[in-house]
Amino acid sequence: MSVLARWTIVPRLMGLPGVANVSIWGQRKRQLQVQVDPERLRDADVRLMQIIKTAGNSLWASPLTFLEASTPGTGGWIDTPNQRLGIRHLLPISKPEELAQVTIDGTTSTRLGDVADVVENHQPLIGDAIIADSPSLMLIVEKFPWANTVEVTEEVEDALDGLRPGLSGLNMDSSLFRPATYLEQAIKNLSMALLIGAALLVVALFAFFFNWRGVFISASAIMVSIIAAGTVFYVRGAEVNIMVFAGLMLALSAVIDDAIIDTQNIIQRLRQTRQKGSEKSAARIIITTIFEMRSAIFYATLIIVLAVVPVFFIKGLPGALFQPLAISYILALVSSMLVALTVTPVLSLMLLSKANLEGSESPLLRFLRNVYDVVFAPIIHKPRSAFVAVGVIALIGIVSLSFIRQESLLPKFKETYLVVRWDGSTSASHPAMSRITRLATRDLRSIAGVRNVSAHVGRAVMSDKLTDVNSGELWVSIHPEADYDKTVTAVKEMVADYPGLSREVLTYHEAKVREELTGTGESLIVRVYGEEMDVIRQKAEEVKQLMAKINGIVAPKVLYPQERPIVEIEVDIDRAKQYGLKPGDVRRATTTLVSGIEVGNLFEEQKVFDVVVWGSSNTRHSVTSVKELLIDTPSGGHVNLKQVADVRIVSSPTMIKRDAVARYIDVAASLNGRNPTAITADIERSIQQINFPLEYRAELLGEYAEQQAAEKHVLSLSIAAAIVIFLILQAFFRSWRLATAVFLTLPMALVGGVLAVFLSNGGDFFSFGTNGGILLSLGSIIGFITVFGIAVRNGITLINRYRSLERDEGEPFGAELVHRGTRERSAPILMTAVTTALVFLPLAVFGNKAGLEIVQPMAVVILGGMVTATLLSLVGIPAMYLLFGAAREPELEFAPVTGIYEKDVHTVMSKTDDVDKKKQPTDISD
Hints:
55% of the residues lie in helices and 16% in strands. The protein is of the alpha+beta class. A six-stranded antiparallel beta sheet has the order 7-6-11-12-10-13. Strands 14, 15, 22, 23 and 24 form a five-stranded antiparallel beta sheet that branches. A four-stranded mixed beta sheet has the order 5-2-18-17.
């Protein structure tokens, strides 16, 4: 099975596009082994080197340079009078029995089989695979980052299906771990939710417009905007992933708003113009209406873009997550702006210029206006009370931020595959880990909802995992129809029942992210460099003691490397000299018997197999057997290893860590209650007080300082963005007081989202404080950005309408102005809120399923946030405009310019000359 996997299956899979590597766990490489027993060699008066030379020289080629087989030469050819004939030698050895018949060098008739066991076996295992409670082979296919997971999976499965006819008797199961299953399920769930949302969108548009032309224009604008943003990603060669999709969903509310307000305003202006009997052309009306809204939307878009600009300066894993999202969000906003200036007016001109719009107003819009007149209009006459209420709600929103906690930016993907990682003792053997892992796979398969379990321990030959046989991974496949959360909980409880193992249960994406994360997870690290571990340990302890005395440092500790017991062999030169042995002689003989030595290869068609000389199993099963190993002496005798060397068990690090060409140990600590800059300065002064030997040193790593600098950088950029947003509001409102009021009350729009998250988490006020507040996910944060954007757009477009009524129609400032402007803008505001809510409603109702891990919490926040954002727009903005909108800075206007012609210049100059002459003094002599 290993031969078929190595020489048939793996080459076929490696030839597929997108496949980067194929690792085989549990591979047992076929070898011809000459297993020797030193006592049998002694009894037959045969030396170990004779066995090595005989086995190596029996083959065509050998890697051992001291053998004649190391220079095999070529077969050559002969020339006859008429033709050239090549010469090829055929090796008569392909089986253990054939190699056993070879006569040993230096003897007349003694064969290898007489003094050694010549068998077919496999190499010492550094890892293994367990499937269905028995040893198996596990082939892990790794793809390139740019490759499509679903496409690569389908290609691999097609290749395996093509190989099945020639691999009779082999059972190949590609469902043990299949990431494409999650992706297919995620796409199915997401597509279904989006399809329902799109249907609700069309229904809502028709209910609001009551006109198929308006529905077609709005729906086309929304679709073209999203497609245009996605096309830009495709042209750039960027990969469209879940974060890119989340960015597009983040911009969806703004795209819907653009499409609705433009189409609704165009229909309204065309209807009003025709009612007045105006002679203006439809094209002029449409263009005027479009540009009337674009000024306000441009300011709103600029503010929204500034709100996400700091994301581009986040580094590390959060930056890698958020930057594609921010890019797709901005692209969608820009696309929506361009569509509003091109596609919407063109479609409007084609479909609405000659259409009969009389009597086509939606009954739903009339109903909403009546609701506004009854519910919201009276509030306009009480602006102070309304402003106080808005301020209180905004204050609640600001205070609620302190109850919000966020454990991780990474969403919890509902993957149907779990990875159970566990580590036993560093000295755990391969049989022990295999036995425990086999029991665990049996127990995990008994859990309801678990479809299959496979496992591997150690590592594979071609794998990139740096693990030993004491580490293992169990791959748990969950049935798609099972209760996901209940099954995951049961898996975690089952794994926790195995004592003495460090373990964690992760999804595949969580496991991959853990591999990408660097650092120790501590706040501060001092790294001690050197060569001798004893000296490094001593100096690390001194660093720890000095750090413990520094104010602000919590729990300093030395991160000692993990150790395991090993058998250490040290040759005693004096004792070895008595037998004519050198240290190298002892090592070479011991290594051959304990570890084996490759003496050559066998070639079978395109396959290559090793031929190895190795000690028999009874010579290397314990420390005692190693001590009793017989070593050949130059005089022809033999001596036990313990007679010429000290054999002892000592501890040794499992991994030797190096940095800057030196070994090191880290001293870690956390910081609390003091300025980090002052703490790091004290640490550096303390390090200078330690007397280090030559080539030993310690340094304070820059991770903490760099992290602090990055956080400060992002915070400073966020503050700068907030200041610029405030200045943009002031520039648009032309009022410091109005800009300040709107800026400070914008958090009111987020209160509904916070309440929605709270209710979706259970809504238990008693556990609210004990659990540390409301737990936010990545999707929730994205939802708050969406709500903020809608609130900004509504506020700016509403105030823009007030200004337009004052400037263009001469409406005097006051409650009637605000009432009229709000009533006119209430329709598109409510249309956007209701339509956006209907689009995101299926995403929220479907629950936290595969594919909805980000958009579902985002939808929950948007549904709640739309309520408070709409209230802020219809109550808060009118009240603030009445209170603070009257006093504003004057428009900047150009002073009139008077043209001066050449004749005017001559006239002025002549008048100047006459005046100068009159001022000249009189000559006394005259």
